[in-house]
Structure formats: structure tokens, C-alpha cells
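Blackboard transcription, Thursday session:
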Amino acid sequence: MLRNFLIGLIIICVTQVQAQTQDTKSDSYRMKSYVDALMKKMTLDEKIGQLNLLTPGGAVATGEVVSSGVESKIKAGSVGGLFGVIGVDKIKKAQELAVNGSRLHIPLIFGSDVIHGYKTTFPIPLGLSCSWDTAMIERSARIAATEATADGLSWVFSPMVDIARDPRWGRIAEGAGEDPYLGSKVARAMVKGYQGNDLSANNTLMACVKHYALYGAAEAGRDYNTTDMSRIKMYEYYLPPYKAAVEAGVGSVMSSFNEVDAIPATANKFLMTDVLRKQWGFKGFVVTDYTAINEMIDHGMGDLQTVSALALKAGIDMDMVGEGFLTTLKKSLKEGKVTLQQIETACRRILEAKYKLGLFDDPYRYCNTARASKEVLSADKMQAAREFAEHSFILLKNNNQTLPLKKSATIALIGPLANNKNNMLGTWAVSGDPQFSVPVLDGIKNIVGSSVNVLYAKGANITDDTVLAKKINVFGERVDIDKRSPQELINEAVNTANNANVVVAVIGEASEMSGESASRSDIGLPENQKELLKALVKTGKPLVLVIMSGRPLTLSWESEIATSILQVWFPGHEAGNAIADVLFGNYNPSGKTTISFPRNVGQIPIYYNHKNTGRPLTGDAWQKFRSDYLDVSNTPLYPFGYGLSYTTFSYGDIILSTNNPKGNQSITATARVTNTGKYTGEEVVQLYISDPVASVTRSVKDLKGFKKIMLQPGESKEVSFTITTEDLKFYNTDLQHIWEPGEFIIQIGTNSQDVKSATINWRK
Ligand code: NOJ
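(Written on the board underneath:)
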């Protein structure tokens, strides 16, 4: 009886699996047949046309070139996609040109830089990552996709997953910080958020992971600069987030501007074909970054025809803006420099993307004005923006429990960013309208009404340097230099401070002091803002700093003179409300930094997962013939994973399920975390593992897990992590991903430095 039942069950299961396999097969079979039939009708020119991505201008151009003659090129079948076209009406018009005006009616794909929200703007990605809340980050991408698709878009140039250890690099603002484990989780969450489960749904769109690869390791933090690193470092620390995005099913990849191993990424066959397609099994298409093919002429790789052929042969499918493919591939084919198959493979991948998005079924699937008016900038999205912002802030210092502020005092709100709309969105908010931003002054008034007396003074310009201001103001006025002299501004601020119980200074960078082509060699507060702070300190009032920036600034001096510091990055549209919520305790800050804060620029690159060296410093004091500096300590000002709360947490010792695991057994490591303070709060409990002896040198520790928990005052929770041999693996000199038996130190704690430890011996 039982036997027959089991056999029956097995038959049902097998049939179901077969049916499912046939179904998936038939999906891809249908796509292949469709694309095959279409490609049979296409001329060579039309096939090359699909590889051409243009931007007609009018939006933000990130290079010197803006496409021309776009309309006639679309009608001629010489364009595969457009970006920088915003709004249903414009997108619909452009789509009509392709669908009605071109011979084969092939629809265009419409992309955009939707980086941290679309029109509703969320905190910059570095800020979002500091929430360590991957479900929330996924939701931010889901909301952005809903809004962007309602407005006509089908493709976003996000997530940016470049690991960065150098805050001089302005684009550090766009990523998830320095750690590959967290970076990979964020990459997966964002791809899932954008793409959902069904790419052809009208509220999901295709993600594009960028900038492949190693763009964040530009030498000296200078944008577009050379990258050079060992394969082990590449595989261990820089490639994982791109790989994670591929594993999550990302539909497209963008090549980076930099070179890798003396070959620009855009012509780098090792990256584009060997790693991306052969090792990771990527099936989507690869687009270059803005004119990256043409830029290979300046890299010294040859003329436009040569570099275009190199890119195609390396595995690039789509050429952004440069038109190298459009203007030279036919000639290269005739001369035997590329093959027809190479052109056809690229064309097929782009047509497949359009097929997956459902554009052949309905090219206007994303063009619905009713949806646009309902979804764009809707109240629920703004509410989410406020929540995301609150979760991205980091409390760096809080002496005497100055924060949260009492809702009954007189507050002097001072600083160039305190009553400012133009800088709240941060870099790469190309569709966000700064006019909808909530300034901090308004946010505070919204929260406290008339119970708090708020006195405001600007105090300083963001910078007094007119030459710098001009460079920063390229996309609109971010720095406005006051007609009053710096001293007049300071005098007014000091008078204001003298009439208050507490000073809140909202200071930092302008939004365009980070982002693309915004590297800085000195990442401190602009000198004139420091002058303001010096004057405010002299008033003797408690001084709360709210710091806006797209990178960790060097804050050694500020960390000594301030009573409290709240790092808020660029919080997005709801900046003022979110900052006020946190300042007055409506939300207890829970962010932890995903990037180390250097003490000074000379420490850079500084990151928690560094190597030990053969002469490590033992303790904090300077030692001769040890790896250290004469003039600064080795440690960062605030380490990776650091962030305070209005409450306090204590950690119990680690309890292991065993100290002597064997083979592929998994173990659990548990720590009891207690809220020892007076406020309900969230804590990001972090797991690190060290591998002190291995066949290659290892970093001092690596993040291998984290959990964000909420605790009431006095409440305790046991937080457990499962550890398997996957968590012990590293790349050896043959680039095999292996683990080796021996001793490992398991660490659980509140940041990368402050941890409890337990040792295990893992046998083969
Ligand atoms: C250049 C940037 O590097 C890239 O991130 C962006 O997606 C493209 N321009 C398109 O705007």
C-alpha cells in the first residue's frame, strides 16, 4: 500500500518537474524563435543599429558628447535604445518613431540613471547601505521601479556596486561602501527590487549592474583613473558584488571606464567574457559606460575602428553614445576584423532583453499617463523616503545625552545646509526636483510646532571659494555665496547661538562635491565652515553637528569640539522631516557606517579588512620598526560597522554549538544582546571571522553575517549565526575558492572593532 503510494508520489513529482522543464524550455524556445525570425529580416545595418544607445540631451549629460540627429537615426533603424528622455509623453513619441517610423518596427528600450529613487528621491546609496536593512533597500528599489515604469522607463543604470576604500573618490556616494559581503547583499536586494519576479510586468524594469569592474579602486581616488590589483584581491574583495547581481538575475551589465590589468574594462575579454559569461554564466547584455569605447583612443588602444572592434570582440553588446559601433563595425566586418557572428550575438542579446521586457508584445507597456499621474511623487513614496532617510543616519557621537533634543528649548539652527533645498538630494538624482525637498528648518518646525523656539542663521557659505563654487554649480546652484561677508555671517550666527540653549549646526559638502568627476584631495570640512564652528564653540553652548556629505569626511577636530554628531549623508526629498524626527527622538538612530572614517587623508586607503603585515602594531602606541605612522594612529576615527543609538547595548560572551567542528558540518555562534539604556532601539549585530593561518595571507577579519534587531529597554535577545565552511572560504593562488582546516576566531559585536571572540578548530 505505502509502496504504491510512494511510487505514485514519485511519478507525480517527476511529471511535474518534466512539465516545468518543458515550460521553461518553451519560454526560451519561444523567445529564440521570435528573435531568429526577426533577425532573418534584419539587414546588417539594422543589426548594428540595435547596438547603438543614444541620449538626445535635455537631461544630465555625463560626458562632452550629446547625440545628434536622433530622430532620423531612429527611423533608419540605427538606434537600439535611448536614455535621458524623461516622461511618458516624450518616451511615447520616441517609441512611435521607432515602431511606426522604422522598417521593422522594433521598439526602443528606454533607460535612465535611477540611482536612489526616481522622481521621489531617497538617501544616496551610501546612506541607504548604512541601514544594513536589505529588505528596506529592496523596497527602495521596488518603489523606484514602480515610479519609473509608470513614467515610461524600462531600464535603470543601477545598482552601482563598486567596492571603494578611498573616500577621495566622489563616486563612493553611489555604492554600498567598503565591504564585499554587505555589498553583495545590497546588490542582490536591489536587483530583486527593480526586476521583481516577472520582467514583463508593467511595474518592473531591467537593472544594470555597474561599473564592471573595479571602478571603485581608481588610483589616488581620482575619477576614471587607472586600477591595478592582484587577481586574489580582485576575486576576494572587488568582484563579489557584481557576481551577486548576476546570480540574482540582473538583465544587463555596464562596463567601467578604468583599465584592469593594462586593458580598459570595455575591451577586456578576461572581464567581459571569461569571468562574466564563462565563470558566472551571465546571459544578458553588456552596455558600455558613456563614450567608453571612444575613450579607449585616449587610453592608447588605437583609432575608433580599432577600439570598437576590440570592444565587440571582448564581449560588449551596446555602445553608449559614442557611435563607434554604428560607424565602424561594417567596415571592420568587411576587413575581417570582427565576424558577423559577433555582431549577431550582440544584436540577439539586446533583442532578447526587449523581448523579456514585453516590448514586442506592447511597446507602450510603460506609457500610461494615468499611472504616471497616480504613481509619480505620490504621498506613500514620500513617506517611504522619510523612513529610508531616518534609517540611513549614523550617530557618531553623543556626549551627555544631548540628543535627543528636548521639545521645549530654544534652538539655534545654524549652517549653510540648515535652510537649503538645493543640496538635499545628493549626487545622481537626475530626475529629482530639489524644489520638493524639505529643508531642515521646515522639518523641525513640522515636528515641534511652536513648542520649541527655533532661531535660524546661515553662519557660512558652503564654501567661500568662488572657483570651486563654479565647478560645483554645473547642474544648477548648489553653492550660493552670500552678499554678506564671512565675518558678518559668523557674527549673526554667534548672536543667534547666544540666545539659545543648544546649537544645531547643519554643515558639510554641497551635493555635487561628491559623485561623478567630483574627487577631492582634501576631504575635510571647507575652511570657512570650520571658522564658523570655532566661533560657535566659543559660545560654550552644547554643539550638535548634523553633517551632510557624500563621503566620510575627515572629522578629527570636529569630533573633539562637538557635543554630538549625526552623519546624515544626503537624505533625499524628506531630509528635513527625517532629520527632525531623529534630533527630537521620534526615531532612534540605528545606522552603522559601511565605510571607515579616516582621521586624515594620509591614512587612505583605510579599511577594516586589511592584512596583518609581518610587523603589525601590538596595541595602540607607536613602535619603531612596526607598520605604523609617526604622526597618526593606525585606526580610523570611526571604524566600519560603527554607529551609536540613544540607548546602549551590551553583548554577552559567544556561545558555540561546538569548538571542534568537522568537515561540512555547520555550527552556530550565539550572543545575548541586551538593551541597557532607556530607549527602544535597533542594533545591527555583526559577525566577523578571522583565519589566522592559511596558505595565503588573509585579512585580519571579514564580515560574514549581520542581523538587525529591535530591543525594548531592559530586553535581551539571543542572536545566532549559522556558520558553514562556505564562510571560511578564500581564493588561493590558483584562484580556487577553498577553505583550509585549522583555527578560526569567531567574533560577534557592535562594530568591526568592538567584538566578543571565541576560537574554534575546524577539522577536515
Ligand atoms: C556615466 C556614469 O559613469 C554612469 O554611471 C551612468 O550610468 C552613465 N554616465 C549614464 O548617465
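Lecturer's comment: The two ends are 44 Å apart (CA to CA).
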